[in-house]
Design brief:
- The chain is of the alpha/beta class and 746 residues long.
- The chain has 4 domains: 9-162, Galactose-binding lectin (Jelly Rolls); 171-182 and 629-745, Immunoglobulin-like; 196-272 and 346-497 and 515-573, Glycosidases (TIM Barrel, Alpha-Beta Barrel); 278-341, no CATH class.
- α6 (353-368) crosses α8, α13 (514-523) packs parallel to α15 and α15 (578-594) runs parallel beside α16.
- It is globular and about 85 Å long.
- Mean pLDDT is 91; it is low at 1-22 and 735-746.
């Protein structure tokens, strides 16, 4: 809605007389909107209230020495716009300023605005004026066109104007049930921390007890340390002797799901006493205590955040150990430093492999059976150990490197398999893009992709080196699992980067705006696409193409072919949003197609949520236990950005086709199946109301090569149809299943 305008004049830079289309995207209106971010380097104020075009706020900035206002977004979020419209005011300064359009940090067009008008003036600058020919861009820059000092200028109500766009055309999907065959591992439908109610749905095939608190879990005293998540506190979880872990395993195994347990490899909580890592009594006043968030807890003022408060009246430099200039500074907080020199023994003790690891495995075997029978089969080696120096800096302030994490993990894996030779071990449990490449030591030295530690280990990326070590260090003769690998799984964590994309921020205004939703759905390309440059901060590093699962496969195939691939933490949006459910549904399809062996979402979706229905699409689509199982096969969409397509063929000749309309309008789709189909096509659809049957397309005698459907905007559609005899003959001729006709009679 446009507010009443102050006295102004209107200037339009446009080559055509016809008015521009009315469709707009707001960049700034009292604040940045729709996912736009402030990347400027000029002195600026995006919320000043003294001079404005429309109340109450506008942007003031100093157009000095080539400085600029820089507003950034993802390229696809701003595709198909053809002009920038804004109000600008030089307030009589006659400033030399130009408008610049950026793409991937490079200038692609500009328009000189010199001199700026002396009163509020609306300008519309078209791509033709700017000399821009690209269909998309990622930056709008108002830049000083002078190296000297200039008077303050003002900008307000910035928006993009969209030209008339033809509606998207029909989509074709080509399915070949004989090509790109890859058996889907059911463990990709796993989660973290599902409770008994969530497990009772039968939707989840694996359940992980993971996260930061599990790093220091001591089963003997049933206590974990919450690290920097919550004031480095030891917090009791049960009555001792593994009560809490038993309470996790019992419903997990009872629901037929696999239990995945995180095991300590460095430190454990020393007692069940509610003890902080940075006591204010012992280490001096700190900038925050537990009383800030939970004032009702007795003694909360003692539980500090580990950041020294030098402005306290009772501050004592020596006691707090934070005046030393060598103590690490708190990023973004000038004058504040982390407390160093505290005693790890305040809360923790070094892990005893026999007592804290081996005896827990033995306890679980006694309670639930062996890994090879009815018991716990999977064990994580710690949780994100390359973050010990930040997450657990109270006990491990030094940045770990390749050798430390490998050596400690190897010792724990050896002990786990000494107690239960059938157990399978997952490691190294990377936290994200940086330690997908190198160690915390290198990151602490300023390079989270490369560095001296990586160079000293053959220049291999951390997961690749880790797998190489696993394959070259089989368990020795005399060990109960002699000859087996110490680690069976490469295990990583990955969350899509970018503000709000993963759905972890808890701010709906950021997570659910149009630009973030579009970025979320595009970011799934990071799982597989060898050409897709990340739209997050990863774009500024090398490599900036993620292609996560193919990289994992390639490293595994090169350095340790026996290992399996796990993604034990990920998330792609909130539970109760359509985009979060659509992203979750596509992630599950991609895991199957790309050959991931296990995937565990952080955390289990809320009961009754749309994200839960995304699992139900594969695990109980008809409400009668119907599951999408079998082999992923080729399904190629003519417009993968608009409609993504996946196909799964079963042992009894059924074909499932998953169609995800990521567009904001409905799309017509024609699916052709090599060899043809027969009979009716049954449909189920996931939309904003949940998952429900969507009818049936009549028997395909008139269209034996496939089927056609209209997909509503932002929906996931599951189609089930019977393959024809000709299609099954093609499958048998592929060399994989010759002579296995009995499978098709089931």
């Amino acid at each position: 809605m446009r507010r009443a305008l102050r006295r102004s004049m209107l200037v339009v830079f446009a080559s055509a007389a016809a008015p521009l289309a009315a469709a707009t995207l707001t960049v700034y209106d009292n604040a940045l909107q729709n996912g736009w971010q402030d990347w400027g380097w000029a002195t600026r104020n995006l919320a000043q209230t003294a001079v404005y075009q429309s109340a109450p706020k506008a942007i003031s900035w100093e157009p000095d020495a080539w400085a600029g206002l820089y507003f950034h977004n993802s390229p696809d979020a701003v595709a198909n716009y053809t002009a920038v419209r804004f109000w600008i005011n030089g307030a009589g300064g006659n400033q030399a300023v130009r408008l610049v359009i950026y793409s991937n940090n490079a200038e692609v067009g500009s328009k000189d605005l010199t001199p700026l008008p002396s009163t509020w003036t609306q300008m519309t600058v078209t791509w033709a004026d700017l000399g821009v020919t690209a269909a998309s861009f990622d930056g709008i820059v108002f830049q000083a066109n002078s190296g000297g000092n200039q008077a303050t200028a003002y900008v307000d109500d910035i928006e993009l104007v969209q030209a008339a766009v033809q509606p998207p055309g029909p989509v074709t999907v080509a399915v070949d049930p004989a090509l790109d065959r890859r058996t889907i591992n059911p463990l990709i439908y796993g989660v973290n921390w599902a409770d008994s109610t969530q497990l009772a749905t039968g939707l989840y095939t694996a359940n992980r007890r993971g996260g930061n608190a599990t790093t220091r879990y001591n089963w003997i005293v049933d206590t974990s340390n919450r690290a920097f998540d919550y004031y480095f506190l030891n917090i009791s979880e049960g009555s001792g002797n593994g009560t809490s872990v038993d309470g996790f395993v019992t419903p997990t195994l009872g629901a037929g799901a696999a239990a995945v347990l995180t095991m300590p490899i460095d430190q454990v909580a020393k007692s069940s006493s509610r003890t902080p890592g940075f006591s204010t009594t012992k280490y001096g006043p700190q900038t925050g205590t537990e009383c800030d968030v939970n004032p009702g807890v007795p003694g909360c003022s003692v539980n500090g955040n580990g950041i020294c408060d030098p402005f306290s009246n009772t501050f004592t430099c020596g006691a707090a150990r934070c005046c030393n200039p060598s103590s690490p500074a708190v990023p973004g907080s000038p004058g504040l430093r982390y407390i160093t020199g505290n005693s790890p023994s305040d809360t923790s003790v070094p892990v005893d492999l026999s007592a804290h690891v081996g005896d827990l495995v033995s306890h679980l075997m006694t309670r639930f059976g062996t890994a090879a029978s009815t018991g716990v089969r999977y064990y994580n080696l710690d949780n994100e150990p390359m973050l010990w120096n930040s997450t657990h800096r109270d006990v491990h302030p030094a940045a770990p490197g390749y050798d430390e994490v490998w050596t400690k993990g190897l010792a724990a894996a050896t002990e786990i398999k000494r107690r239960d030779p059938g157990a399978e071990v997952l490691g190294p449990d990377t936290w994200g893009w940086c330690d997908f490449w190198t160690s915390a030591q290198d990151a602490a030295a300023g390079d989270c992709i490369n560095g001296a530690d990586r160079t000293a280990h053959g220049g291999l990326a951390w997961p690749a080196w880790y797998m190489q070590q696993a394959c070259t260090h089989p368990l020795p003769a005399g060990h109960p699992a002699a000859g087996k690998l110490p680690m069976d799984w490469l295990d990583i964590h990955f969350y899509p980067q970018g503000n709000g994309v993963a759905g972890l921020d808890g701010d709906p205004s950021v997570e659910d705006d149009a630009a973030t939703v579009a970025a979320r759905l595009r970011s799934l390309k990071e799982l597989y696409d060898p050409t897709w440059v990340s739209e997050s901060w990863i774009a500024g590093v090398n490599p900036n193409v993620v292609q996560l699962i193919p990289r994992m496969r390639a490293w595994r195939d090169t350095y340790c072919p026996q290992m399996k691939l796990a993604l034990s933490e990920y998330k792609w949006g909130k539970d109760d949003t359509v985009s979060g459910a659509l992203a979750q549904a596509e992630a599950l399809a991609l895991f199957g197609r790309e050959g991931l062996d296990m995937a565990l979402r952080w955390v289990a979706p809320d009961a009754g949520s749309l994200a839960e229905d995304a699992y139900r699409l594969y695990r109980d689509y008809d409400g009668l236990g119907g599951k999408v199982t079998g082999d992923s096969v080729r399904a190629v969409s003519s417009d993968v950005n608009g409609v993504a397509s996946y196909a799964v063929r079963t042992v009894n000749g059924k074909l499932f086709v998953i169609l995800l309309n990521k567009d904001t309008v409905s799309r017509d789709v024609t699916v052709t199946v090599n060899g043809g189909v027969t009979g009716a096509v049954d449909l189920w659809r996931l939309d904003g109301s949940g998952l429900a049957a969507a009818g049936s397309i009549a028997g395909s005698a008139g269209t034996p090569t496939g089927f056609a459907a209209t997909l509503p905007a932002r929906t996931a559609t599951l189609a089930r149809v019977q393959l024809s005899t000709a299609a099954m003959n093609l499958i048998f001729s592929d060399g994989f299943e010759s002579g296995d006709l009995s499978r098709w009679a089931q």
